[in-house]
Design a protein that fits this description.
The complex is a heterodimer of chains A (641) and B (225). Chain A is of the alpha/beta class and 641 residues long. Chain A has helices at residues 8-13, 47-50, 54-64, 79-88, 117-127, 168-184, 189-196, 278-281, 290-304, 322-335, 349-358, 375-380, 387-399, 418-438, 473-488, 503-513, 519-528, 542-551, 556-560, 581-592; strands at 37-43, 69-75, 106-110, 142-146, 162-164, 202-203, 208-212, 218-223, 232-233, 261-264, 266-267, 286-287, 308-312, 339-341, 366-371, 404-411, 449-456, 496-500, 575-576. In chain A, strands 2-1-3-4-5-6 form a six-stranded mixed sheet. In chain A, strand 7 and strand 8 form a beta hairpin. The longest helix of chain A is centred in the C-terminal third of the chain and has 21 residues, at 418-438. Chain A is globular. Chain B has two domains: 2-107 and 218-224, Alpha-Beta Plaits, CATH 3.30.70; 109-212, Alpha-Beta Plaits (2-Layer Sandwich), CATH 3.30.70. Chain B contains five helices and eleven strands, in the order βαββαβαβαββββαββ. Chain B has helices at 18-31, 75-85, 105-108, 124-136, 183-193, and strands spanning 2-9, 48-50, 59-68, 92-97, 109-117, 141-145, 150-154, 159-165, 168-174, 204-212, 223-224. In chain B, strands 1, 2, 3, 4, 5, 8, 9, 10 and 11 form a nine-stranded mixed sheet that branches. Chain B has a two-stranded antiparallel ribbon with strand order 6-7. In chain B, strand 6 (141-145) and strand 7 form a beta hairpin. The chains are: A alpha/beta (641), B alpha+beta (225). The A-B interface holds A 1-2, 4, 8-9, 11-12, 17-18, 21-25, 251, 253-255, 301-307, 337, 339, 360 and B 10-17, 20-21, 23-24, 26-31, 33, 36, 38, 42-44, 46, 56-57, 85, 87-89, 202.
Chain lengths: 641, 225
Amino acid sequence: MRKLALTDEILMRVEKPARYVGGELNAVIKNKDRIDIRFAMCFPDVYEIGMSYLGIQILYDLFNRREDTWCERVYSPWPDLDAIMREKKIPLFALESQDPLKDFDFLGFTLQYEMGYTNILQVLDLAGIPLLAKDRAENDPLVIGGGPCSYNPEPLADFFDLFYMGEGEVSYGELLDRYKANKAAGGSRMDFLKAAAGVPGIYVPALYEAVYNEDGTLAATRPLVPEAPGKIRRVIVNDLDDTVYPDKLIVPYVRSFQDRVTLEVMRGCIRGCRFCQAGMVYRPLRERSADWLKAQAEKMLRASGYDEITLSSLSTSDYTGLPELTDHLIEECGRQHINISLPSLRIDAFSLDVMSKVQDVRKSSVTFAPEAGTQRMRDVINKGLTEEDIFRGASEAFHGGWNKVKLYFMLGLPTETDEDAKGIPDLCERLSELYFAEIPKEERNGRVQITASSSFFVPKPFTPFQWASMLPREEYLRRAYLVKDTMRAQKNNKSLHYEYHDAEVTLLEGILARGDRKVAKAILRAYELGCMFDAWSERCRYDLWMQAFAESGVDPDFYTLRERSADEVFPWDHIDIGVTKAFLRREWERAMAARVTPNCREACSGCGAASYGCGICRLPRVKTPAGDEKSPAPGTEGGNA
Amino acid sequence: MNVRIRFGKEGMMRFIGHLDVLRTFQKIFRRAGVPMVYSKGYSPHPVMSFALPLGLGLSSEGEYLDAAVEDGTDPEAMLAALQAATAKELPVYALRVLPEKAENAMAAVGGAVWKATLPANMPLEGAETALKAILAREAIILPKKTKTREIELDIRPMIHSAGIEDGAVVMTLAAGSRANLSPDMVLDLIAKELGTEPESLSWQIRRMDLLDHELRPLGACGEEA
């Protein structure tokens, strides 16, 4: 029988003890005496959230394919267990072996959202690992971060020994080999860190210093040793059909948020929405072949026993193999009583047909993400969805029997006016009118229900909006009320519903997203004051965060309420994601002129990702560039400006 | 055809709740490639029913579930496939094909056999004497809370047998929908008889088997694979 780190008495006291006992189907157990490298992979949030994330399953599988490595998992203990562990001084452990994290060689964190940062400190603290990298001893685990938030690693630089820039499949093999070689040669922690800095995609923050101007802006991030490269370039997989993918997903016993097989159909996105970080940092678009996906789906369903499968990517409607893949899945899954859960697709005749085959039209809804209420605003953000698209899609959906529509918007976008905000309720009203106009009374299946939700826009690094200012808290709320009040005054307001996100969390996210190394002090202080699980909005303590900023001498407004100048040096400028700063600046200027840029399939706009020489950058385009400035031919622009 | 499997819960599986075990068995049957029979309706689900949920934290070697599988499925191969597909701490012991008219597992449950290992601080003779004294009573009236009020209940008829074996209290108690007695109730009586606070004792409780209304093991019904 596997030993458990927690006693029966503790497990009986906490909510959902299954979060802490491991032992899931397909979890990997190895003999630790025959292992050279022990890697603990952490999603710094509660188990059910972390287990829903495919990325960890991919890395877990990748690491455990190595005979010399045992990769295990760890998640944030929920506050009930957190308190017991502190009181009884129980060190945090990995799920598989139930061994303390302190015994591991590596502790990896996936950085999916800024509001999870204090949970990183929680995990380190409970594990008994010094929070600051500089305080760690030779034998402490090496703390490594990866994932979207690591593209601006600076606010977390003090807490991490290493960051991994890019897709895990590429460089982890070499990193682990160098670790083993250093250990065998009797090298020190610093010897390893210097060796690691030479691995493509690896950033060792301790080997760099941040130099500031008098006004507090960054002057430069400079390498301190010859081993540290001036720029760290993101690494990516060129051919996705040539990657390992987990055949045997770990199947949690407690229901996770994504309780199904997830099939990643492609990486990257052609769209180029100017607010979207994922759309820039995962370029270029690389598709998997439908044949590869069909074979993988079968293997994963068989090995997991799941009765549901879903497709995943940034914009699944843009996957060229979608009709072939969905036809296949509908036929195969239907036979085996497996449900297909569709990601949100662009609403058109094709997607409505697929949706009607796999879900109950009466119960389901159609979803649009116009992101902004007026066409002018949508042009500013380069959201390719036009009003015509929305109305055509909605009309087809209404005729197909749907009467629930969900719409996603952002408020607080650059150049946004009150007219743009009021465009949201206006669009909703006109959609409800469309329903009444097109669907005769006798064919109506109850009242049309239109739900609009809005989040407040947060400028993210490596997007065309990285120069943008945010708004004061009161102004966010004023705009949300403007939408709400306008909607309430409309004729069809009983068919309309509006909800909006928290403004305080938005501001915190904004500080952390574009923060520099100075912000680390505030994160540490916030954690000391008791901030944890900030991503759970009911648990987020804005007051404590504000206290932490004040006590650590970090001015929130410096990070949020300031439009950056064209020549400002950003904390993430030494990271090279492929897309160039020059391209992003061009996009910022086009945004200010409300000019759209064609998507990657229509024309190459010379973003810089062609320097990877793979994916869509190697394919012929439909038409010539629509822009006025000359775009370079595919594959000619490289490096980072 | 309907089959009944007997399974256990060990180690970490003790902390997996009943509904999660149910969902896990649906996955195990799929992994094993057992052709299940599905319910009708818009979202068909496999037809499966459990005998009696087991409380969180308890281990067991006598759990049962009934499942409807396609006629003609080879029982022996099915058992082997289930054993290969399940988790170590959720062992599948046996599979039987049920007779056509058999009552389903949930309706069939009438009793349960429990084994509670004596806490380290309890002397064997003391426990034996206490148990004998309890069993000698003609009636054991305990207060019981129902949804609306508190009633008095005689639990003595619900204790079919109890004795000490290998340093553990082994007892057969009423279980199921008609009458159900939790082993804790008997163990608390032993503690009281010995003048000890029940909360100060930590018993390790294991369900050994589930019985029908005639107190025959649920696993005796039908033909063994």
